[in-house]
Design goal:
By secondary structure, the chain is α/β, with parallel strands linked by helices. It has twelve helices and twelve strands. Helices cover 52% and strands 13% of the residues. Strand 2 (68-74), helix 3 (81-91) and strand 3 (95-100) form a beta-alpha-beta unit.
Length: 368
């Protein structure tokens, strides 16, 4: 009981600290833009349903068109993605180019080719199924002009109305806040490739994705950690709704599981010791919940203190999710966060085992 109680107390403290750090991150408001050239790199594969919406967002940026370019890199799409990009390029006024991978494949190869093709000093990244605000490029330009960082991570939110959509949005928002809060305290943990930017020189200085090319995921996190290791203190999180990128949740449970397995599959490959320890602790933490509940049912210990510990956990998690959802504009958080907190331990444990022993697919490709 003492061990279980200790784990629960640590859980509460961690969530309270993460929430506090997140709330103290200053909101960035752009001022001077400077004259940095921005290259927007968009790796795509089979995004015919989404790519035109993103390109339309990029065509309506409130930034000088001569100061940014858009490079769409096709990873062997099997649908109409490239023909749609080519048609859009013929009618748009922005500097839009498209390139295709040759014998290489995968998102990292596509991103690397995008960087190689870029003429800008700053590489700004998103995905083909995302939507970006009209102030997106301008605000990143202002941030790099003011702070001169080597890399910047930005906020991403999921948008949907169903209960399943809201669950995914809250789960996703917890990762965004965790990445922001840990980075604020000087630790590189996680970011999202749908909204990040970095100096082209920094990318080349750390040799890009060299060393983890064979890992299908992690194009964002591995790069984050490499640049953070080489340039301590020069990797930031930009807390600004002017760069808030939106994406859609998965429609089916199967698609959701495949996405999360892809994300979780890389945790064992991180070079950071503290990240590995944190991952193992999180796994143990979720197992402890089952011992708490079973301990009450089996009569191992008095129910009142255990119920109080569970309630404290839920309250700490709720405050954390509310802070995240307020900034990320997830309107139904207050209604659904207890459901998320209840379901979360079950799905994390199942996906944790699945990420170690199972297989997953992404964009028509299978990985183990």
């Amino acid at each position: 009981m003492i061990v279980i109680a200790g784990i629960a107390v640590v859980h509460v403290i961690v969530f309270v600290l993460l929430t506090s750090v997140w709330n103290r991150i200053h909101v960035f408001r752009p001022s001077s833009l400077g004259d940095l050239k921005i290259s927007v790199v968009v790796p795509v594969r089979n995004e015919a349903q989404n790519i035109l919406a993103l390109l339309d967002d990029l065509a309506h940026q409130d930034h000088q068109t001569e100061l940014f370019e858009v490079i769409v890199v096709d990873d062997h799409s099997e649908d109409q993605t490239i023909s749609l990009v080519k048609e859009f390029a013929r009618v748009t006024t922005i500097n839009l180019r498209y390139v295709s991978l040759g014998n290489a494949y995968g998102k990292k190869a596509a991103a690397s080719l995008g960087v190689e093709s870029a003429t800008g000093e700053v590489i700004l990244c998103t995905d083909g199924d995302c939507r970006v605000p009209s102030s997106w490029v301008r605000t990143y330009a202002a941030y790099f002009h003011k702070h001169e960082p080597k890399m910047v991570s930005g906020p991403v939110r999921m948008v949907g109305d169903r209960l399943f959509d809201v669950y995914q949005a809250l789960d996703f928002s917890s990762l965004i806040v965790f990445g922001a809060a840990t980075l604020q305290k000087g630790y590189a943990s996680t970011c999202n490739g749908a909204n990040m930017a970095y100096s082209k020189r920094a990318f080349l200085a750390v040799n890009g994705y060299t060393g983890n090319e064979s890992v299908p995921s992690g194009d964002d996190e591995f790069l984050l950690q490499k640049i953070h290791d080489q340039y301590p203190g020069e990797v930031h999180f930009m807390k600004s709704k002017d760069v808030l990128v939106s994406t859609s949740p998965k429609v089916t449970v199967g698609g959701f599981i495949q996405q999360r397995l892809r994300w979780l599959s890389k945790w064992r490959l991180h070079s950071s010791l503290w990240l590995k320890v944190a991952s193992v602790y999180a796994f143990i933490d979720f197992i402890s919940i089952f011992f708490m509940v079973y301990g009450i049912v089996a009569g191992w210990w008095p129910w009142l203190p255990v119920v109080l510990l569970i309630a404290l956990r839920w309250l700490a998690e709720g405050r954390y999710l509310l802070a995240a959802s307020h900034f990320l504009e997830i309107s139904q958080c207050k209604r659904y966060w207890p459901v998320v907190s209840f379901v979360y331990p079950f799905y994390v444990l199942l996906l944790g085992f699945g990420s170690i022993f199972g297989r997953y697919s992404w964009k028509g490709r299978s990985y183990s």
